Each structure stands twice: as structure tokens, then as C-alpha cells.
């Protein structure tokens, strides 16, 4: 089995004079969940379309399951495109069955699996309803089920969470996990960092048409400066003591009336250094709380335009 379900090698695409994707390379490792992240217009959808052969790259190449993509290899892929919409006059079950048939499933098997999926994802009652009679979120779920009906080895979902309510976002997260546990490789794009943080083994981050990060979620989190909150008597002034460790600010007062100070640690200092300094100085701490970094902070840090940062500093 190939190490990668998908390898994208130095692909570029320019629309008119505007480069949308600039020499991007990454891989979706077999058996892993990879998040494809980036702000609006970063080039995610264009890259996914090139990966699937929907549009041709200007340069670069794509490998599927370790080889040149073929129609047979594409049959092993399930894809949810960014544009939503399926035939509105067909029923939910007919649509899912049709997608199964298009991927080579025998008719009876496709029909049975369609019903099975609809029931498992709480759409059993909607099986024989036309898409136009369903809510937007329900129709989207039908489209997601259409992408997985043939039990693909590799599932690519472009913004699968957008348009779903929080309950259905949870259902989709569980479904993605279930598919991964069953052995599928997953690649999905999203703007919502919480989904990526909960689900992904790895993330690939795009900004301005380029890849700006590719690695494990923990590695992305490691770029976020550590923060520590300390609670002390409101009369205490900690700026001079804590400044050598990072940027110090007052972050409010807690419910017991204690002052909360926040330190964004510089690269050289650890929470332990901070604690030691407080203990050595005889400071009575009511709270010492290293804050857990979130992917959102890593995202902001990694996609911030170096030119903007320089402008801010000037
Ligand atoms: N068919 C097209 N014709 C012209 N420009 C396009 C086309 N498709 C995409 N672009 C441009 O390419 C850039 C990247 O778009 P793309 O849709 O790949 O970004 P994205 O990261 O998926 O964004 P979003 O998160 O908003 O969907 C954008 O500037 C977009 O306007």
C-alpha cells in the first residue's frame, strides 16, 4: 500500500493574470485525517480540483494511491465539492443510489447501502422525499452520504461543515472518525479550527496561494506562544518581576476579586521559570494556569502576512 493516498507535487494554477496556487506540494497519508486549512481565497478549492483532475494544473503533477491517476483510481475516491446541489427532483435514496452506481456499485447493493446510510444518519424518514422538499442542511447530508456510498478508500470533503447546525456538525465529525477508523484516508478543507483540532492527525495550511505549514497538529500548536494566567492579590504589581519572561498584561479580576495577570511567554521562557520567579519572590498565587494553545491561534500566527507584520512594527 502506498504511503500516500494523494501526493500533490509542485502544482500551480493562474487564472488570467492572478496566480491562485503557487507551486504547492503536500500529501494525504494513507489512513490519516488531514485538514486542509486556509483563509478565504487561499487556493484550497483550486488545489483540490487539481488533485481530482477537475481542472488541469499549469504545472506540477498529482499521484493517487502512489501512481498516475486513472479512472479506476478515481472510483476509489469519494468527493464532496464546495458547490452544494444535487438533482432536486430526485429522492434522497435515488440520489445516493445514483452516486453509488456511477462509482460502479451493482444497483441492488447501491440501493441497500443508500437506505442503510440514510437510516444511520437520521434521515430514514426522508429517504423517499425529493431533495427540494428537504432543508438545506438535510440536502447537504444527502450529498455527503453520496460521497461515501461506495465505501471509498480516500474521501475528500471541501468545506463539509459549512451550512450544518452544531448537532449535525457533531454527527459529521463522528462520521468522519468512523470512516477513518474503518481504514479510509480523509482530506477535508475547513475554516473552522475546532473541527480540525478535534479530528486531524495532520494539517496543511494555505495562505495567498502558497503552503505555509504542513505537519502534525501538535507541531502547529507549538508555534503559538505559551500563555500563563496568574492570580494574585489586587495590590500586587507584577510587571517588573514578570517582564523578563514575556509580554505582561492585566487580564481582569476573578470572581474572588483576585487580579489576573497574563504573561505571553517569550521563546526562551517556560511556565516553570515563571512559577519559580514568583515563589522566589514570595508572591502568594491564588492561580497559576498555563493556557492550552488552540489551532485558531496557530492559524492566525501562521497565516499572518509578513508584510503586514512588518508594517505593524514600522
Ligand atoms: N474559475 C476561476 N476563475 C478565476 N479565478 C478563480 C477561479 N477559481 C478560483 N479563482 C481565484 O483563485 C483564488 C483561490 O480561490 P479558491 O477558491 O481556490 O480559494 P479557497 O481557499 O478555496 O477559498 P474559500 O475558502 O473562500 O473557498 C481566489 O482569488 C479566487 O478568486
Automatic annotation (TrEMBL):
Entry-linked PROSITE patterns: ABC_TRANSPORTER_1, ABC_TRANSPORTER_2
The family this protein is said to belong to: Belongs to the ABC transporter superfamily.
Domain of life: Bacteria
GO molecular function, one term: ATP hydrolysis activity
Domain ABC transporter intervals: 6-233
Keywords annotated in UniProt: ATP-binding, Nucleotide-binding, Transport
Residue stretches in coiled coil: none
Name of the protein described by the UniProt record: ATP-binding cassette domain-containing protein
InterPro entries membership: AAA+_ATPase (IPR003593), ABC_transporter-like_ATP-bd (IPR003439), ABC_transporter-like_CS (IPR017871), P-loop_NTPase (IPR027417)
Any one Pfam family match given in the protein's UniProt record, by short name: ABC_tran
Amino acid at each position: 500500500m502506498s504511503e500516500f493516498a494523494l501526493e500533490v507535487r509542485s502544482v500551480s494554477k493562474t487564472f488570467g493574470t492572478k496566480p491562485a496556487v503557487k507551486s504547492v506540494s503536500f500529501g494525504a497519508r494513507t489512513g490519516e485525517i488531514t485538514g486542509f486549512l486556509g483563509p478565504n481565497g487561499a487556493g484550497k478549492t483550486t488545489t483540490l480540483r487539481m488533485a481530482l483532475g477537475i481542472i488541469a494544473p499549469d504545472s506540477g503533477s498529482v499521484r493517487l494511491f502512489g501512481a498516475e491517476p486513472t479512472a479506476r483510481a478515481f472510483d476509489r475516491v469519494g468527493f464532496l465539492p464546495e458547490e452544494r446541489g444535487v438533482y432536486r427532483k430526485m429522492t434522497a435514496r435515488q440520489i445516493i443510489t445514483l452516486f453509488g452506481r456511477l462509482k460502479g456499485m451493482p444497483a441492488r447493493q447501491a440501493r441497500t447501502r443508500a437506505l442503510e446510510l440514510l437510516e444511520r444518519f437520521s434521515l430514514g424518514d426522508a429517504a423517499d422525499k425529493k431533495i427540494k422538499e428537504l432543508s438545506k442542511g438535510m440536502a447537504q447530508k444527502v450529498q455527503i452520504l453520496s460521497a461515501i456510498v461506495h465505501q471509498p478508500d480516500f474521501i475528500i470533503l471541501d468545506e463539509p461543515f459549512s451550512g450544518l447546525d452544531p448537532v449535525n456538525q457533531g454527527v459529521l465529525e463522528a462520521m468522519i472518525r468512523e470512516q477513518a477508523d474503518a481504514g479510509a484516508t480523509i482530506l477535508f478543507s475547513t475554516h473552522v479550527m475546532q473541527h480540525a483540532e478535534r479530528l486531524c492527525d495532520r494539517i496543511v495550511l494555505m495562505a495567498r496561494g502558497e503552503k505555509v505549514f504542513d505537519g502534525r497538529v501538535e507541531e502547529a500548536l507549538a508555534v503559538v506562544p505559551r500563555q500563563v494566567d496568574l492570580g494574585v492579590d489586587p495590590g500586587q504589581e507584577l510587571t517588573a518581576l514578570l517582564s523578563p519572561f514575556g509580554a505582561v498584561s492585566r487580564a481582569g479580576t476573578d470572581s474572588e476579586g483576585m487580579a489576573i495577570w497574563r504573561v505571553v511567554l517569550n521563546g526562551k521562557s517556560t511556565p516553570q521559570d515563571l512559577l519559580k520567579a514568583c515563589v522566589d519572590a514570595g508572591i502568594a498565587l491564588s492561580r497559576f494556569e498555563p493556557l492550552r494553545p488552540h489551532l485558531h491561534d496557530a492559524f492566525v500566527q501562521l497565516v499572518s502576512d509578513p508584510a503586514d507584520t512588518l508594517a505593524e512594527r514600522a
